Amino acid sequence: MLRFAAIVAMAAVSVIAWAQPAPRTESSLDAAVMNAKNVFVGQIEAVHSDGGPISRVDFKVESTEKGPEMAHQTVDSNYSPSYLEDIGKNGTRFLVISPNQTKRGPALLLNLTGDDPVVPTADLRLLHGAPEIIAYAKRCASLPEGENYVLSLQYALMAVERSENSMRIEGQPISYLIVPVDNRLQETARKMIQSKNPTAREHGATALGKFKSGENIALLKALLLDPHSYAQPNAKGNAGIDVLHFPVRIAANGSLTAWGVKGTPVLTEEKPRFDTVTEIYLYSQRVTDKQFDQLIQCTKLKELDLARVVISDSQMEKIAQIKSLKSLNIAGGTFSDKSLASLAKLPQLRFLSLVLAPVTDLAIENVAKITSLTDLKLSAKDVDTDRVRALQKLRPNLNIISM
Fold it and tell me: 169 partner at 20 to 30 Å CA-CA among 200, 221, 235, 312?
């Protein structure tokens, strides 16, 4: 539900803004006026405050765009009384939009006296100057009260093929625009789902969910075959398999499901990358036997990170079957010292990290058998020991790195 925020700008450019965490979320003039009780142009006569966050502001009314015509009106404002009093002395004209009973909160005050006040509209335009803004507000006064929607403006503009790709107020782009749920939003959503940009299609599918019809059901069903996807987790973090998510399909299915239209679309899919993945990182994961079987199938795997992983003897044997492996990190892992003997079967293994891992006489003896190894990383406490000094004598070319 929208909440009005009092906005008074003394700068050359003024803006309708809303009391929301995202500073680049703006309201269209249509949405603001549609759910307003009174809309008028006026000047500040007096400001009343009891020291609280809300002040009462008396206006002399110049013209009434919506609501009963009165010579004077009083509204709530959340701007400081001193600021309102100072700007009121300058004869500043405001477009005042006072919320109705169901949209309680302070009135919205738009400064019309600046050089070029700017306000966005629901048809994705910017109004410039007091005459255009006031005339548009008067036309919006006939709109029936209704639901609003927060539209992703960047992707909407992309879809409607405007020459500009953003709407800027005070130099800052508007990220989201609050608009009425009406035919204009429906037409924008239909254009968005035809966009070449997948994020525009995703946002369009969600927006179109506000308009149930046979035609829109057909349009959304077509999106259930949208090809765009992203991998989460990807093959590097999932033992060689991308888990693909289809965001456009998910958005379309969400709208269809809300309408009670059921189907069985493919929203996620596993895609093996065994023949291309070269690096896999499974740090601190619970790696299953099935995932170790997947690792064996990664024929181009060069680097494997299994730090802080529990590795059984049979699983270490599976690691030894990855003949392309050059770097193995099992730091902080849980494994038996005898299982390290399996690693001697790796013809290309150059780097091994045993930091914070059990380093016993048998472990060092088995590491010495890995003839391809050039770099061994150990915890500092393990380096200056008889067993490691013996390893250095046995393998003088082995670079032992203290960590």
Answer: 200
* Residue 394 backbone phi and psi in degrees, to 5: -70, -35
pLDDT digit string, tens, across residues 243-284 = 999 999 999 999 999 999 999 999 999 999 999 999 999 999
Q: Which residues pair with 55 in a beta bridge?
A: 77
Buried b (16+ CB within 10 A) or exposed e, 332-367: bbebebebbbbbbebeebbbbbbbbbebeeebbbbb
C-alpha distances in angstroms, 85 versus 7, 24, 46, 96, 180?
Answer: 14, 28, 7, 16, 34
What are residue 336's DSSP bridge partners? none
- Rounded to whole angstroms, the Cα distance separating 63 from 38 reads 11
* Sheet strands (E) in 82-190: 93-99, 108-111, 118-120, 126-128, 148-152, 168-169, 172-173, 176-180
Structure tokens at 181: 């749920």
Segment 309-363, tens digit of pLDDT: 999 999 999 999 999 999 999 999 999 999 999 999 999 999 999 999 888 889 9
